[in-house]
Design a protein that fits this description.
302 residues
Length: 302
C-alpha cells in the first residue's frame, strides 16, 4: 500500500482505486507538537470510537465515508477528491472533500475563553450579554469554521467559509444543521453514560450524488472535549476526560509557557523548544483514559 499522508496521529494509505486505509497510531500530539512517547492502545481506541460514531450517524440518515474496521486500529473509508483550489469547485462537482473544519462549542472552555478574554470574540457572538464564566453552558451551540487545506488553520467568518467551501447557500446551511444534529445525538448518548460533550470538531465531504457526508474522525478524546457529568453537576468541577489532561501536564511543568513565549518571539518549528517525553506514570493514566472512555461512551467492553 502507498502511504499518502502521515499526520501527527493518523497515517493514510491507498486501498484500491476508490478507498483509503486509516492507520491510527499510538502517537499523541499537543500544541501542534508530536510527543516523543507512545500511548499503548490509543490508536485502537480512536479507531473503535470513530467507527461507533459513524454507525450512529448512519442511523440519523447522514452519509459517512466509513466502510469498515479492517483491524482494531485500521479503518477502510471511501476516498474523496482533495481540491486545493476551491475556485474549481462548482455546483456540479461531486465526491470531494469540503476544505473546512467545523468546530461546535456548547460550554465556555478552551481557546474560546482566551478569545473572550482578549476581545477577539464578543459575548454577543455566543448569545450572551456578558462574557461567560469558565465552564458555563452556552445558551446555544456556537459553530465556527477554520481552513483545513492551508499550512496553518485560520479562522473564517461564515461568509468566508461559504465562499471557500464551494457549496451553495442551501448546502452550507445543511452542513451547519448536520453538525447540530450530530452533536445533539452525541450529547444524548454521552449524558446517559455520565459524560458532558463540551465541544468538538468535524469535517465533511460531498458524495457521488452531491449529498453531504461526514468524514475523517470525530467524537473521540482527541477531537472533542468531555467532562464528567456527576462532578460537574455536584460542584461545577470540570474533570477532563480527553487529551486535555496531557495539555495540563505540560502547562504545569512550564513547557507550555516556554513554547508560546518562543513562538511569540518568532521561533520556527525547527527552533522551538522540543517537547519532553511523558513520564511513565502519566502514560499509564492516559492509556487508562482512552480505554475507559471507549467503554464508557459506547457501552461496549474493550
Amino acid at each position: 500500500m502507498k502511504l499518502l499522508h502521515k499526520g501527527k496521529v493518523k497515517e493514510v494509505y491507498e486501498f484500491g482505486d476508490d478507498k483509503l486505509l486509516f492507520n491510527f497510531t499510538d502517537q499523541i500530539s499537543v500544541f501542534d507538537k508530536i510527543i516523543p512517547t507512545l500511548i499503548p492502545k490509543k490508536g485502537e481506541s480512536l479507531a473503535r470510537t470513530s467507527a461507533y460514531w459513524f454507525e450512529e450517524c448512519a442511523k440519523l440518515g447522514i452519509d459517512t465515508h466509513y466502510v469498515q474496521l479492517q483491524t482494531p486500529n485500521t479503518m477502510v473509508v471511501k476516498r474523496l477528491d482533495i481540491i486545493h483550489d476551491s475556485s474549481k469547485i462548482t455546483p456540479k462537482t461531486v465526491n470531494f472533500f469540503i476544505p473546512l473544519e467545523v468546530v461546535c462549542r456548547h460550554y465556555a472552555a478552551g481557546s474560546l475563553l482566551d478569545r473572550l478574554a482578549d476581545g477577539s470574540v464578543k459575548p454577543e457572538r455566543v448569545g450572551m450579554k456578558h462574557a461567560p464564566k469558565k465552564g458555563e453552558k452556552l445558551p446555544q451551540p456556537f459553530v465556527e469554521f477554520t481552513t483545513k487545506l492551508e499550512e496553518t488553520d485560520r479562522p473564517l467568518s461564515d461568509a468566508e467559509a461559504l465562499k471557500l467551501s464551494g457549496l451553495t447557500e442551501k448546502e452550507f446551511k445543511a452542513l451547519k444543521q448536520a453538525v447540530l444534529d450530530i452533536d445533539a445525538k452525541i450529547a444524548q448518548n454521552a449524558e446517559r453514560r455520565g459524560l458532558i460533550h463540551v465541544d468538538g470538531k468535524k469535517e465533511f465531504g460531498m458524495n457521488a450524488n452531491r449529498e453531504l457526508m461526514i468524514v475523517d474522525t470525530f467524537g473521540t478524546p482527541d477531537e472533542d472535549r468531555w467532562w464528567d457529568k456527576a462532578l460537574y453537576e455536584k460542584d461545577g468541577s470540570m474533570v477532563e476526560l480527553s487529551k486535555e489532561m496531557v495539555r495540563q501536564h505540560y502547562r504545569q511543568t512550564g513547557y507550555h509557557e516556554k513554547l508560546y513565549a518562543a513562538r511569540k518571539a518568532g521561533a520556527t518549528k525547527d527552533t522551538e523548544p522540543p517537547i519532553p517525553p511523558l513520564p511513565e506514570n502519566v502514560v499509564g493514566q492516559v492509556t487508562k483514559l482512552y480505554v475507559e472512555f471507549y467503554e464508557r461512551l459506547t457501552g461496549q467492553t474493550w
